[in-house]
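Supplementary Text 2. Reproducibility record for the structural model of the 627-residue chain.

All settings were left at their defaults, and a single model was retained for analysis rather than an ensemble. We include the record here because the model underlies the residue-level annotations in Supplementary Table 4.
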Amino acid sequence: MEKFDFEEELKKLPGKPGVYIMHDSKDAIIYVGKAVSLKNRVRSYFRASTKKTPKIQKMVSLIARFEYIVTDSELEALVLENNLIKEHSPKYNTMLKDDKTYPYIKVTISEPFPRILFARQMKKDRSKYFGPYTSAAAVKDTIELMNKLYKLRTCNRSLRQDIKKGRPCLNYHIKQCFGPCQGYISEEEYRTQVNKAMEFLNGNYGPILKELEEKMYAASEALEFEEAAKIKELLYSVKSVAQKQKITDSEGENKDYIALARNERDVIIQVFFVREGKLIGREHFYMKQALHDTDAEILETFMKQFYAGTPFIPKDIFVAEDIAEREVIEEWLSKKRENRVYIRMPQKGQKEKMLELAKQNAELVLSRDSERIKREELRTLGAVKEIETLLNLKNIERMEAFDISNISGFANVGSMVVYEKGKPKRSDYRKFRIKSVSGPDDYACMKEVLTRRFVHGLEERETTDERYGSFTRFPDLLLMDGGKGQVNIANQVLAELDLKIPVCGMVKDDNHRTRGLYYHNVEIPIDTHSEGFHLITRIQDEAHRFAIEYHRSLRSQSQVHSVLDEIPGVGPTRRKALMKSFTSIDELKVADAQTISEKANIPMHIAEGIAAFFAEKRYKSDGGEET
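Retained model, structure tokens:
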């Protein structure tokens, strides 16, 4: 790549609004920002006289090149900036953590006969989304009500090609679906029902309320009291859902109160949702660590990211800090809402009290989660620190443990489990089917497993160009499920491959529980009440569990193979059909040829061979012969 000429490129910057994108030496995007004047803003990063926070200083030191996109207005720049941040998650942008998902109602309008579904994410799949909502239960109630009101399908059949294939489901028979799978309703008629449902989801409840009331009175006058009662129940459900979900009405007092709490590491944002003058819900959000950002900068970033992802925008948004880009964000939100939006900073009265209440809630969440995080750190990072101290090692991040499982040498298998920063990294777990050892020799099995693991890693390092995966990344500490013998095997393998990795054995007592660690030819006692001991025990148990599970699965496959694959004419396909058709081998053993043929849908002469095979087995067994 041609070297980036900063001086030359800075001269080319236009004095227009736009978005700038900073790249590091590996061409990864590390920061995205917007500017009223790209020329002034981007130059300020590289001007020695400009005062910079430690965060910005560090970011600037990593910039290898920059690029920019010119826009027509600052508003367009804001929207583009937000989209790029969401797309690339740059390291030096303050980010709203997306570890919490909120429910949406999804209408699959791209399908010939659309469905209404519950969704946790808004995807670009040509569907129509409503939400997000604060209550998953309310969303499920609404979907159930929509399907009852408009008789929409809930199946996942692929219509049009599946029309008239198979029978209609129960929903059709109980009059809760029009039966599009049978062609009982046209696409146009069905689409009309879907459009009515979407009107309801948009907050237009009037038509369906009127329609249900008319139907209820008509049924009552016709003395169909049972039908009238059903409609009355539906009417009540509609009114109930309308109260819960009525958040798109532009009339009345719709407000959001946004407050934050922070400590040296975490930021919590609390949002109170007021709709029609009533507090209908509150949610908290985590922000990625932003030590050197001010409260106002964090609130500004949160508002951009939060309101970009929610279709409902209230008329008033209350915050405790003056937002630098308040006017631009107001303009952006007003366009999204198609009505005026105001960002306000109340100084007294009820609104200021509500904001203070939101802040108190944020502080409570922060305090509660800080305690939880501290406890989790003691179990993980704290435990790793204890092990480091015990073994006189530094910077242990990745630990790998191995175990062997077999029954008298049958189906020897090995397991590899990985813990990073004291937590299991299951995506890096690996299992090994032993190839070179046939008898019950755990040392030889372990030697094969370790050799394959590290040889594979060395080979991958030659070809993966610094992309570290489960094998190419080597452990900082190797844990063996045993004492001196297992440790010596591991050290022998590492020496042959010229690798220097500390190896520690987990010495067990008579109850197969860890009592100490074997390291550098010495058994080191360990406090059985310490977090380090609990972590070692968890790792040992996990390696053992993973090996046992794999061995059990192979044993099960082998047992099935040994019986069915002995039968002439039974290959993989017919074996699968037999296993699917009969609940157990014992049931198959006593079945006659006719039953086998009908149940498994296989030719009679093959079924007769299977029945004869098991009959011969029973005969030999009755005669005392081995089977």
